[in-house]
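#struct-help
A.M.: can someone run this one for me? Single chain, 140 residues.
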Amino acid sequence: MPARTVPSGLRRSLPVLWIVLALACACTREPAPVGTPSAYPAEETLSQAALDTVIRFNQARSGGAERIEVPEEFWAPEIAALEPRGVYWHNNNLVVLSSASGSDTDGFYIYVLISSYMPPDGETMDLQVGQELVRLVVIR
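D.P.: on it. Structure tokens below:
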């Protein structure tokens, strides 16, 4: 019985099909139930907003300058709505420092799909931001 081969045209289109399938699956997630009390947007909303912010920031960066603070002009509206005291780029992920006080955490570490750096396991992580050690809620 002869071996079956995949036609070269189909073989070249498989990566594109996988990307389309992944995007379709990501877009069909159930929205958060209406009326769910929350002080912050849903994790999916923040993840998308972080991705938008990182893409805008990376497109504007020129050459080898390693700026870490993301200027407000690049913030997605959902990030700006959090009224952060600072937003930072970290390995293509986003650090959003909260302006709220009286919390056990200092903000969010939002994993962005285009990043090759996955934050450590756990619900929170500690990170040195400038001279400050902050505890962040990890959003994957």
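A.M.: thanks! The beta strands are 86-90, 93-97, 107-110, 124-129, 132-139.
D.P.: also worth noting: The first strand starts at residue 86 and ends at 90.
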